[in-house]
Specification:
Length: 389
Amino acid sequence: MGTHADLLPPERSAEHPVVGALVDHTLDTFEWLTNFDSLSHLLDQEYLFRSGSSSSSPRTKKRRVLHVGCGTSIVGEGLVGALDYDFVLNIDKDDSMVAEMQSRTSFPCRCKYQQLDLNDESACRDAKLGEVPFDLVVDKSTLDCLLCSDASGLLCEVYHSLCEGGVYFVCSFHSKELILPLLQYPGMQWDIICTSINRVVERVSNNQSTSNQFQHNEISNIQDGCNKSKESVNNSELRPATNQSAWNDGTFMPNSTYGKTVNIFICRKNQDLCKAEAPEDLSFQCDRAAVRDHLHKVNDKWFQKVNPMLTHTREVTLRRLFTENGGDDCGLPLARAYAVIFTAAEREHLTFDLFLEDWSVFSENQDGSVCSTDFMSIDVALKFLKEMQ
């Protein structure tokens, strides 16, 4: 399953692998992965809810939005101020960050912030999440982050909280070859459109008023040929999702698109299949343990088979390096093993402290087959790379 070695994009701080711990506790806002303007044409109600989707008239219904893992993003305010959604609930597990954002919002009645950990099922029920369904759930790289730990709570609560025909809007750094299988858990029925946009990252100072940014209810037109204004959005013209490969022959070698584009998955909860799943009360409940097992299997298949760190070439190289660095039957001390196993580019993302955390988890699950927790043999190193990728 995914660990710290599943490298995230560079801006994700290694010290903060959980949702909500992305920036220091300041009043500056930060847009992780990409900014609101780059997404607004796809989030516009006239695109998401036009005739032929879940509503015959985009503006006749007052729509509710759930923004998961909000951090200090102003996406929630943009949804209200620029796109005229009726209500946005922004949730994050960091209570101090939530308090900061609630105190600074320009739309206190329509844009609320709430502390909530989606992996705490009892807390979600106490918060009555989903009792009043949402029309849209916005996920800006929260799924990406939780794939390193446990995304089962996120996916179960998103599905539970959406109304029939509602949209789960996923903004992800990962390719569709990983994300689509993750979403295809039996019982979760989605109609999915995949596209990509150019990535735009910015920090908005506290001195900038969000009410001034959004007071005219207009959408910025990003004139780059890829991020289009709402007037030009057409499914047939959407750019295909990209494959941002970072691994080549077992080493970290980003391709030309790595970090430059963002994939978007517009997942509509299938109304007809929802009724078929639960004809009596229409309230399908996901089994978190089963979803967690599904996510781990998909993650393992992707990282170990499709995008492996450990290839035949790398194994040969590591065996030679262990011998050249004096590795005997007991192996190398952990600090030296870390320097040998990982390239300089990989060590920039996987610090020694994070490596030690992964090593501790790995050692505990080996049933005594690791002869010393202070040394790593070549055979153990190869097994570590394979299992902990």
